[in-house]
């Protein structure tokens, strides 16, 4: 009893913590923990300013200097004695990120409280990719840190301001210029000294578009080989994948064209265009699928439309459909038909299933009733042909006084002829 009483001298308050421990406060309102069965201090001569729950496994305690450490909830043991820091952060499933009073950071293992790497502190630490963390020291040098070993991959201080990871590839940033990089012997180095550029944009696979402020180059950054050299000087372009055989090349704020995709091992190949009009590449402002097959609709820089069949193999040419027609506008389009007009202002209908014209003749007028998906075409003799939205001919060669007069009664559709007779349309 005397030991117990002495043990509790100076205690001003006792609070319940859990089924194993009390929280006790001294005259300075500082707290500590004692066991319920023996009233022994869990941490001899150790008092805390405050405590709070940190997560499901730890509590955060503060010392007299305003620094923090973690205690395990199950037994109130220190994660690691002497690890007092300004802040603690859940960095990953296995690591804490801690900050010293001077603002520098390091990583600590959740399992045992040991440092991931000894005697190395950073001004910033971030996740980088599946293999590495990225850290910046107080001198703003950038390092990669192995997640597996905790080793500093870049070894000594490096002269690059940043390291990037994009689509499975490493890049070094030297303030204004960027270069593909590789990790050699625990150091990250430029792939080739002639690959520095203002910007790199991923196209697909290992192909990147590099812009050096003057010209554009396509580079295979696995091999370090230039594929297309010096494209469109003093013009910034973009290149995107179109399909397995072709790329889209577009100018910034402007027109687009198709180019042939190079083979993976190609080097210094000539830029080639699969779509040519009068011996010149076809540039267009808009492209979109025309049907559920491999037919695309292009609108060129003169606002004309073109239909092209894109083959599944690069051994087959791209085929232009209706090359004898200049399509000036698309009046209407659904998944079955498209109403087109040519450069003379005449109209026809293209059936989307086979991209053929529905009529051999052209019509001087076309009126669309979009609500019921019906089209009335008027020929040069002022006779009308009525088409459903599916492309079926409903009525042919009738004389209609007023094509704007459509009568819908329940499920029936009528139109007036020249004699003011109502003609029933069997719509399907």
Salient structural properties:
about 425 residues, mainly beta, 4-stranded antiparallel β-sheet, 40 strands, elongated
Tell me the layout of helices and strands.
Layout: H1 2-7, E1 11-16, E2 21-26, E3 31-35, E4 50-53, E5 58-62, E6 68-72, E7 87-90, E8 95-99, E9 105-109, E10 124-127, E11 132-136, E12 142-146, E13 162-166, E14 169-174, E15 177-184, E16 187-190, E17 199-204, E18 207-211, E19 216-220, E20 225-231, E21 237-241, E22 246-251, E23 256-260, E24 276-277, E25 280-281, E26 284-289, E27 295-300, E28 305-309, E29 319-321, E30 327-333, E31 337-342, E32 347-351, E33 356-357, E34 365-369, E35 374-378, E36 384-388, E37 393-398, E38 406-409, E39 412-416, E40 422-425
Antiparallel strand pairs: 1-2, 2-3, 4-5, 5-6, 7-8, 8-9, 10-11, 11-12, 13-14, 14-15, 15-16, 17-18, 18-19, 19-20, 21-22, 22-23, 24-25, 26-27, 27-28, 28-29, 30-31, 31-32, 32-33, 34-35, 35-36, 36-37, 38-39, 39-40
Distance between the termini: 101 Å
What's the total count of β strands? 40
Please give the share of residues in helix.
Answer: under 10%
Structural class: mainly beta
Q: What kind of oligomer do you see? A: single chain
Instruction: Report the β-strand fraction as a percent range.
Output: over 45%
Radius of gyration from the CA trace? 38 Å
Count of helices?
A: 1
Mean pLDDT: 88
> Sheet bearing the most strands, described?
4 strands, antiparallel
**Uncertain runs with pLDDT below 50, 5 residues or more?**
none
Q: Overall 3D geometry?
A: elongated
């Amino acid at each position: 009893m005397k030991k117990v009483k002495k043990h509790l001298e100076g205690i001003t308050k006792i609070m319940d913590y859990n089924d194993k421990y009390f929280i006790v406060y001294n005259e300075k309102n500082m707290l500590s923990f004692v066991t319920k069965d023996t009233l022994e201090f869990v941490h001899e001569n150790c008092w805390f300013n405050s405590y709070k729950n940190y997560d499901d496994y730890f509590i955060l305690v503060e010392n007299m200097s305003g620094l923090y450490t973690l205690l395990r909830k199950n037994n109130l043991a220190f994660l690691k004695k002497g690890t007092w820091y300004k802040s603690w952060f859940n960095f990953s499933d296995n690591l804490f990120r801690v900050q010293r009073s001077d603002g520098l950071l390091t990583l600590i293992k959740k399992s045992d409280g040991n440092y991931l790497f000894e005697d190395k502190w950073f001004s910033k630490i971030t996740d980088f990719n599946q293999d590495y963390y990225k850290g910046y020291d107080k001198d703003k040098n950038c390092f990669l840190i192995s997640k597996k070993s905790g080793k500093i991959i870049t070894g000594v201080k490096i002269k690059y301001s940043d390291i990037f990871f994009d689509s499975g590839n490493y890049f070094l940033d030297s303030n204004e210029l960027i270069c593909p990089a590789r990790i050699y012997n625990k150091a990250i180095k430029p792939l080739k000294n002639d690959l520095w550029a203002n910007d790199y944009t991923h196209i697909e696979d290992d192909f990147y578009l590099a812009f050096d402020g003057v010209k554009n180059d396509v580079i295979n950054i696995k091999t370090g080989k230039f594929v297309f050299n010096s494209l469109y000087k003093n013009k910034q372009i973009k290149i995107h994948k179109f399909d397995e055989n072709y790329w889209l090349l577009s100018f910034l704020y402007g027109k687009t064209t198709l180019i042939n995709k190079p083979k993976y091992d190609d080097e210094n190949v000539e830029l080639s265009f699969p779509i040519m009009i009068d011996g010149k590449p076809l540039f267009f402002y808009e492209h979109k699928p025309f049907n559920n097959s491999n037919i695309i609709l292009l609108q060129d820089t003169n606002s004309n439309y073109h239909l092209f069949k894109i083959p599944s193999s690069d051994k087959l040419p791209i085929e232009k459909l209706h090359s004898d027609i200049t399509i000036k506008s698309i009046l209407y389009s659904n998944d079955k038909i498209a109403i087109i007009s040519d450069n003379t202002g005449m109209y026809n209908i293209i059936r989307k299933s086979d991209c053929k014209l529905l009529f051999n003749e052209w019509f001087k007028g076309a009126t669309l009733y979009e609500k019921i998906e019906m089209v009335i075409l008027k020929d040069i003799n002022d006779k009308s042909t009525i088409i459903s939205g599916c492309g079926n001919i409903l009525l042919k060669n009738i004389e209609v006084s007023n094509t704007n007069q459509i009568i819908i009664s329940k499920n029936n559709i009528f139109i007036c002829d020249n004699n003011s007779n109502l003609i029933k349309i069997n719509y399907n």
